[in-house]
Amino acid sequence: MTALPDPVLYSFRRCPYAMRARLALAVSGTRCELREVKLSAKPEAMLAASPKGTVPVLVLPDGAVIDESIDIMRHALAGCDPEGWLARDDAALIARNDGPFKHDLDRYKYPERHGSDAEAHREKGLAFLRDLDARLADAGQLCGPERGLADMAIMPFVRQFAAVDRDWFDAQPLPHLQAWLAGHLVSDLFGAIMMRLLPWQLGDPPVAFALSLGVPGQ
User: Fold this and answer.
1) pTM exceeding 0.70
2) Closest C-alpha among 23, 122, 49, 135 to residue 90
3) b vs e for 172-183, b when ≥16 Cβ sit within 10 Å of the residue's Cβ?
4) How far apart are CA 218 and CA 215, in angstroms?
5) What is the rounded distance in angstroms from the CA atom of residue 173 to the CA atom of residue 193?
6) Could you give the domains of the chain?
7) Contact indicator for 118, 107 with CB cutoff of 8 Å
8) Long-range CB contacts (within 8 A, 24+) of 17-21
9) Three-state DSSP class for 22?
10) Residues 77-116: pLDDT tens digits?
């Protein structure tokens, strides 16, 4: 019997949406071919699979395409969920992150692009961070004492917000959130999904994103 090809994941290392997808694929042990994308020169194969042109895009062996990061997370975890991430989900909290918080994050980080008042959007984003901090005070993670889907879906965006002005972020009275973020950033899981790759080009040898912590291998 001929083995099916691996799924193909089009990704961009620093994109928080792509990070969350890689986190779930890695923890689930889902083997796939990882293709790093240069956003200013998106490969035709990715655009053919998903014309909207955003990462991540997961192309399954049967040709089906999943091009929403949360859907990729849930697809991977439905196949294998060794840490029980699906039991620690909060769709409403993730929607707040992906909606209002992401809106403010973009206008805080890129005020020239959006013609926005960066400080005003930073303050709006801070309100969401305060809610997360209060929630983390109870159990250490967003849905209990162990990391889960909600943590991994939201953490990459908090990381991006914090990185805009790290001194300012570190000075805020957000002790539980700051400890939560720091813990995830030094985890083996996060380290494994942040490998550096050259942008994929047609004809390149496949790079396998596999094993329980997403260790890449040729």
Assistant:
1) yes
2) 135
3) eebebbbebbee
4) 10
5) 29
6) 8-84+192-217 (3.40.30.10), 85-190 (1.20.1050.10)
7) yes
8) 17/54, 17/55, 17/56, 17/69, 17/156, 18/55, 18/56, 18/69, 19/156, 19/193, 19/194, 20/69, 20/70, 20/73, 20/152, 20/153, 20/155, 20/156, 21/56, 21/58, 21/69, 21/72, 21/73, 21/76
9) helix
10) 999 999 999 999 999 999 999 999 999 999 999 999 999 9
Which residue is it, tokens 């399954």? 60
Take residue 176 and report the two structure tokens written for it. 């539980």
Element (H, E) at 8: strand 8-11
Report which residue type is found at 21.
Answer: A
User: H/E element holding 175?
Assistant: helix 175-185
Task: Please count the other Cβ atoms lying within 10 Å of the Cβ belonging to residue 80.
Answer: 11
In DSSP notation, 30-96 reads --EEEEE--GGG--HHHHHH-TT--S-EEE-TTS-EE-SHHHHHHHHHHH--TT-GGGS--HHHHHH
Q: What digits encode the pLDDT tens for the residues 30-85? A: 999 999 999 999 999 999 999 999 999 999 999 999 999 999 999 999 999 999 99
List pLDDT tens digits, range 135-189.
999 999 999 999 999 999 999 999 999 999 999 999 999 999 999 999 999 999 9
Distance (Å, rounded) from C-alpha 189 to C-alpha 173? 27
